[in-house]
Amino acid sequence: MSSFLREWHTPQVGKLMIVGLAMVVSSVLLCASSAVAGPVTVGAKVRGGGRYDNVRMCVATSAGTAGGPAMDVSFFTEFGLKDTVSIEANLPVVRPILFGLSYDMLQFEPEVTLLFRLPSEGSMDWVLGPRVGLSFHYGPDYTSGPDGAARGPSFFAMGPILGGYVGLDFKRPGKTFNFQIGLSPYVTPLFSFGDDGRNGIVVGGMLDAAFRFSLGR
Hints:
The protein is α+β, with helices and mostly antiparallel strands. It has helices at 2-7, 11-35, 94-103; strands at residues 40-53, 67-82, 85-92, 106-108, 111-118, 124-139, 155-170, 177-193, 200-216. The relative contact order is 0.21.
């Protein structure tokens, strides 16, 4: 297995994995939408934060820095299970495409969150719940530079995302669009394939600004 992976260390692999994984996640969302009878909300999230990361190269920090800032734009679909419970599937978009095209890297982290709404009589509801996902990496480790002789060898790694979400939902009764802001702390143990000593952990958090469009039932 390790020799097979080493033979596939090419820039095209990360790009093909992005397309393949996006197709898999899209298929799962389509199946979920047909199985859930509650309200459906779609939208986009603008995400920014930071993390400690002693596995992957960060394109925004110098070689040898374990971690750095993180930003992304993602698309999500939220399926209502009942009035105060829903499940959200989040699909990252900008970071996987940018890293694949500009840096010959893959960082792809789809997530699912079980959300509980705490209704209030005011204009805002608290929304919170556990979040799980999978992190996929293809690229150099954190000791590597971005290009040239400073760039180290690429490798595959993956691991579970374990985290949560707590946010404020700005209600607009009777309207199609509303806004939500929240925090998403997480921890991700990463395990490499075919490379010794590349295992590690990512600990971080993101501030999420969600633009939400209700599709009704």
